[in-house]
Amino acid sequence: MAISNDRQTVTIGAGVTWPPLYAYLDGFNVSANGIRSGNGGVVGAILGGGPFGFMSYEFGMSNIARSLDCVLADGTLVTASTDEHPDLFWALVGGGNNYCVVTKAVLNTVPVSSALIGTVSWGSGVSEQYIKSVEQFALHGAEYPKASFEGQTRWVPSRSSEISFDGYLWYSGEGNEPLGLENFTAPVLPITRGNLTRTTMGAWSNAFNYAPPLGTRAIFHWLTSPANATAARIAFDTYYESIASLADVEGFSTTFSMLPVTPIVTRAPENAMGLGSDDSPAIWYVESPLWSRPEDDARVLEVHAEANIKIRENLSAAGLGPLPFMYLSDIQKSQIPETFPSYGAENLRKLKTIRDKYDPDRVFTELVPGGAKVALS
Ligand SMILES: Cc1cc2nc3c(=O)[nH]c(=O)nc-3n(C[C@H](O)[C@H](O)[C@H](O)COP(=O)(O)OP(=O)(O)OC[C@H]3O[C@@H](n4cnc5c(N)ncnc54)[C@H](O)[C@@H]3O)c2cc1C
């Protein structure tokens, strides 16, 4: 990691993950418009179409990379940016592992030195107000761009039959009043555990070990709906009703995250995902179940597949989505076939043409395992 003299950019190697990057930037009183929590790779988040995090509510998402150095399949080293190989640069943000090996990235920094951040809970039995607050944030949160929220509704059947309403709160404005988060604090929605404290992204993101125990089974599943409390209610109720039978699966727990998306978040530069003003306000959802034993994979996946068919049926019966946007970073493997097509036919065609140009022998399509393959979409 090496910051520029003017502190406007930071150059990183491809192995850098978010917590060390945030800690490094703290030392210069700036930050990066990166992910919220987790020890994920910076380059992986860019290739997955992001990052999307707390600061995306002020600066937009998917716009952190200024340039990406890449080794192409024939061994050539190129720099991709808006000036050099702009087609490759466009394809890399959201185009996944189809084009090259990224070895180095130059990232834009953001002038954020500290924030009020909270890992909090509102307890159980507050679904109505919680969902309403998510909807209101998606609709009006753009008025307070220094505020953001990620909702995590959680069910840990070995601990309680109740769903708990948890989340992260963020406010990077001055002072101790988190303006814009009134719907997530007393008297509207009193916090029952945790509080907002002024800290830095480096200190906050390095304070936990996010990894579940080694060997834990895990998936993500992505869903998008309009910014509407009824849609969120349908998705939430259908999910938890449909997966209730998994309570006896060893080590089972799940999080159904709700991410309100304001028009600032989707104000990305012209991008391969087609992300733009049509995609907001919205609510994005991520299901992230965990369980212990490979023997339970089939059962957990089958129940989730049925749950997600029902969620989509119920949303469309109510005329409330689902909406097309898919976020490559957070999809389930079974969602690969619909992900690149969700970018739009013209963008998918362009992604394929650029892939043909930079990797005509399909090295990254055929020899790199995993990931979503543009050529097969
Ligand atoms: C706990 C947790 C929290 C998260 N929170 C957020 C969040 O708040 N916001 C958000 O936007 N995302 C979030 N994510 C999603 C995360 O950004 C993606 O999973 C991302 O893909 C992780 O990147 P990685 O490099 O660690 O993963 P990997 O699985 O190693 O890589 C992802 C993909 O990119 C390819 N790839 C990685 N590095 C390179 C490279 N150098 N060159 C070419 N191809 C490469 C891989 O082949 C793979 O297909 C979270 C994930 C987790 C697990």
Automatic annotation (TrEMBL):
The keyword Flavoprotein applies. It comes from the Eukaryota. The keyword Methyltransferase does not apply. Coiled coil: none annotated. GO terms for molecular function: FAD binding; oxidoreductase activity. Keywords: FAD, Flavoprotein, Oxidoreductase. Residues 1-112 form the FAD-binding PCMH-type domain. SUPFAM superfamilies: FAD-binding/transporter-associated domain-like. Belongs to the oxygen-dependent FAD-linked oxidoreductase family. PANTHER family: BINDING OXIDOREDUCTASE, PUTATIVE (AFU_ORTHOLOGUE AFUA_1G17690)-RELATED, FAD-BINDING PCMH-TYPE DOMAIN-CONTAINING PROTEIN. This is FAD-binding PCMH-type domain-containing protein. It comes from Didymosphaeria variabile.
